Amino acid sequence: MSYSENLALRALATISDPVKSGDIIAAGRLASLEMIEGVLQAVLQVPPADAEAFFPIREAAQNVLETVDGVTKARVVLSAHKPGPQIGGRKKGNPHQPRRPEGVQGDAEVKRIIAISSAKGGVGKSTMSANIAVAMARSGLKIGLLDADIHGPSLPMLFGTRGQQARAISVGSRKIIVPIEAHGVKTMSVAYLTPDDSPIVWRGPLVQGAISRMLWDVDWGELDFLLIDMPPGTGDAQLGLAQDIKPGGAVIVSTPQDLALLDARKGVAMFRKVDIPVLGLIENMAVFTCPDCGGQHHIFGTGGAMRDAEELDIAYLGAAPLHMSIRESGDAGTPVTASQTEMSGFFDDLAKAVIDKANETAQRE
Ligand SMILES: Nc1ncnc2c1ncn2[C@@H]1O[C@H](COP(=O)(O)OP(=O)(O)OP(=O)(O)O)[C@@H](O)[C@H]1O
What span, in angstroms and rounded, lies between the C-alpha atoms of 290 and 276? Predict the structure, then answer.
């Protein structure tokens, strides 16, 4: 018997939402519902901060779906994604912005550039970038971090530099921007160049031009690594940006569920298309340890990232747990790595894995 989507939706609507009033359908949690090879697959979109509350909801949803006529097996996954903003596509055939404007000193003192990317928004790419940057700086390296997410710059919040404006200094006939140093990292964000928190409405070429300027017209000085927190997505705009920046390697951040990993594959394909080596995959929100019972919960699924990294022939760089302190410290402007708590150890390991892989790749190239 074929199944009816209406009946499945009605079944899901019998489950109350643990955060908003009403049921999970009314609360807009259902991101997709699809019958794939005889298994009814549903994706529920949940806020990362409340993910734990949805753990029993996943099970309940799976159970009610399996009572629907025509459904023999159901699979429900939780997703922490939010739709990623598009930074405006380039029209086919448009020339790229020049990689480095004439006369600009460029990256002579920047040893390696690493792009940190994710196919979807909200998977924790900026949180990972900030913590890895601080962990690298703590290990004695000279580190810069450029927030290339022009429509949703989160770096100032993560580093506690909100409201600060970058100074421009004159060098000969041109002006260069002085990055803002925080937690041992030289940081640069478009938010430092715009007064107040006004929304940024630049599109396409303007966006790319602004990012190029932030990259080349900033007085980075001597850096061992410059990390670029890329805008989420794998569209033309991100591809163009990757070509512009031409990093020495790219790191893909993903959450464990299959949906995110499917997208992570698109990220790997994008970088490969423009010959940028993929250094590896970081799995964020991999496991949640219940503070009350100590039990470990794989809220967003388990095992997929490592398997996918293997299949894609890229390194599995490591995992960061889903932990309240990671979000709290990000909101407070002190990356958890800077606070030297038990959590900082995860980022020290991740940073080391990224450094080793980047050095190894650079030697091979
Ligand atoms: N491991 C984690 N544990 C707890 N909270 C996390 C973790 N990683 C990220 N978060 C939280 O998830 C939210 C999204 O993270 P973040 O802004 O880093 O994602 P993003 O992928 O950069 O998003 P976007 O680029 O779409 O803005 C933030 O509130 C952040 O504090």
Answer: 39
